[in-house]
Amino acid sequence: MKRLIFIFWLFIGLTSFVLVADFPAAEIKNESIKAKLYLPDAQRGYYQGTRFDWSGVIPSLEFQGHQYFGQWFEKYDPKVHESVMGPTEEFMVVGYDEAKPGDTFLKIGVGSLRKLDAAQYFFAKYYDIVDPGKRTVKTKSDRVEFTHELKDAAGYSYIYRKVVRLVKGKPQLVLEHSLRNTGQKAIATSVYNHNFFTIDNEPTGPGIEVKFPFNVQPAGSTRGFGDMVLADDSKITYTRQLNKGEQVFSSSLEGFGTSARDYDFRIENRKTGAGVRITSDQAIQKIVYWACSTTSCPEPYIAINVAPGQEVKWQINYDFYTFPKTAATR
Asked: What UniProt keywords are attached to this protein's entry (predicted)?
């Protein structure tokens, strides 16, 4: 009997492992970085929600013994809006206000979605995918190339390409984007990167520091600033470790200018001496800041405007580095 019970639980364990490990994925590497990406798939994909772009979910990135990404949320569900990891991006909706309940609107990187009712769009809701578009994925040893093509979605059509690439000879990850408007309507939106970093699984607290190239100040709707978290000159620091369920938020960090030079942030784990520098070739439209007990996220937005027949391109760079642990504990 004991043997049968053991075999049963062994089978369950192995089956669970297969289910967890069976998401479509690809691994890329260069001389100093190894990363894993989950690939988009409507039936078997890790992420099937309707908030974030399906391309570029990165559950793991290792550099010099440091782990930069991982599961920051407690419960996993493929259709829950936040079941993503890594430098995940979200486009603002297009055509939602004009659509009537039951009609469709556009979410770039996801597809054509059904408007549920007359309520305002809410990022945490799941909206039925009416047309997922056509996706192609090409993998190489140092990159993954994603293409998402959508035709006549609420009158909009586009070809969206995204390349997640490791740079040869550098500890650098690059996100290269292009969006071609193949429809008759202009596409006016914005996109941001949520930057779900979990450097060495350090809890959000005094061990984490976020740096900016300008004097940063929280504005708009805020939560936790002046108490759990401080914006002091050009950095954001924590006065204590955040407890489970606690969150920090600012709907608008101020202090940046109109140059792409201000799109330059650093997130550092002061305890382990591991950091990342985030830059772009685009100017910042706005910055939202959000943190919970497991991740601290500067969310820089850029404006996207594409006339019919035109194409826009943009790039985000992630440079990984280490620094002495003695400096990290000062």
From this structure: Calcium
